[in-house]
């Protein structure tokens, strides 16, 4: 004799079993989507990088002998208004650095007093300090690299000069980086 509530031959167990299989399958698909979504989402470029593909900066905010640090694509960019004495000093050694570069190759014609470089040491990526070191430029306190006022490496473990980003002057007082 059949137990109460169990329907022999009418497929009651089969419909209950089908429901459990469907529910388990749906839960597995949901769990799989939750695992895969972060992996796919991390491949998208960061929002702060896209927003700063290029930036403009007003050079009137920098006074002679000063430096301003701005952020571009998550990196510090040094904008330095060099004094005539600094310009004279960096021009006196035309092929310093690694690779050897002239100061004119690192600046734009007619705006040689302004230097725009990415403020990240080429040794291990530390941020060098302004107006320090043996050559009147930057000094990286992490491992002792010295850069001159043109951003050229002069002493220490850094293998390359500070990087000059792609930039252009959109007017006499505005520069567009990127």
Q: What report would you give on this structure?
A:
25% of the residues lie in helices and 25% in strands. The chain has two domains: 11-44; 48-177, Rieske [2Fe-2S] iron-sulphur domain (Rieske Iron-sulfur Protein, 3-layer Sandwich). It has helices spanning 12-41, 47-51, 84-92, and strands spanning 55-58, 67-72, 75-81, 114-118, 129-132, 136-140, 145-148, 153-155, 167-169, 174-177. The mean pLDDT is 85. The chain is built from three helices and ten strands. It is of the alpha+beta class and 178 residues long. The N and C termini lie far apart (84 Å). Strands 5-6-7-8 form a four-stranded antiparallel beta sheet, with no helix packed on it. It has a three-stranded antiparallel beta sheet with strand order 1-10-9, with no helix packed on it. The protein has a three-stranded antiparallel beta sheet with strand order 2-3-4, with no helix packed on it. Strand 9 (167-169) and strand 10 form a beta hairpin.
Would you kindly provide a brief summary of this structure?
By secondary structure, the chain is α+β, with helices and mostly antiparallel strands. Helix content is 25%, strand content 25%.
Number of helices: 3
Largest sheet: 4 strands, antiparallel
- Radius of gyration of CA atoms, rounded to a whole number: 31 Å
Q: Which CATH class of the largest domain is shown?
A: Mainly Beta
How large a portion of the residues is in β-strands, by DSSP E? 25-35%
Mean pLDDT over all positions? 85
CATH architecture call of the largest domain:
3-layer Sandwich
What is the count of distinct domains? 2
CATH fold name of the largest domain: Rieske Iron-sulfur Protein
Task: Please provide the count of β strands.
Answer: 10
What is the string of SSEs from the N terminus onward? HHEEEHEEEEEEE
Helix proportion of residues, in percent? 10-25%
Oligomer: single chain
Question: What is the 3D form?
Answer: elongated
Low-confidence stretches: none
CATH homologous group name of the largest domain: Rieske [2Fe-2S] iron-sulphur domain
By secondary-structure content and strand pairing, the structural class works out as alpha+beta
State the distance separating the first and last CA atoms: 84 Å
Strands of the widest sheet, in order across it, are 5-6-7-8
């Amino acid at each position: 004799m059949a137990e109460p509530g169990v329907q022999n031959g009418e497929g009651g167990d089969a419909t209950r079993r089908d429901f459990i299989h469907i529910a388990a399958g749906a839960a597995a698909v949901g769990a799989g989507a939750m695992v895969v979504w972060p992996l796919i989402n991390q491949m998208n470029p960061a929002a702060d990088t896209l927003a700063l593909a290029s930036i403009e900066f007003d050079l009137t905010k920098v006074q002679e002998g000063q430096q301003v640090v701005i952020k571009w694509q998550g990196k510090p960019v040094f904008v330095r208004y060099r004094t005539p004495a600094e310009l004279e000093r960096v021009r006196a050694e035309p092929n310093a650095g690694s690779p050897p570069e002239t100061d004119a190759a690192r600046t734009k014609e007619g705006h040689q007093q302004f230097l725009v470089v990415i403020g990240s040491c080429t040794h291990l990526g530390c941020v060098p300090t302004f107006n320090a070191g043996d050559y009147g430029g930057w000094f990286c306190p992490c491992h002792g690299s010295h850069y001159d006022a043109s951003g050229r490496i002069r002493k220490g473990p850094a293998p390359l000069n500070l990087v000059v980003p792609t930039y252009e002057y959109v007017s006499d007082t505005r520069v567009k980086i990127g």
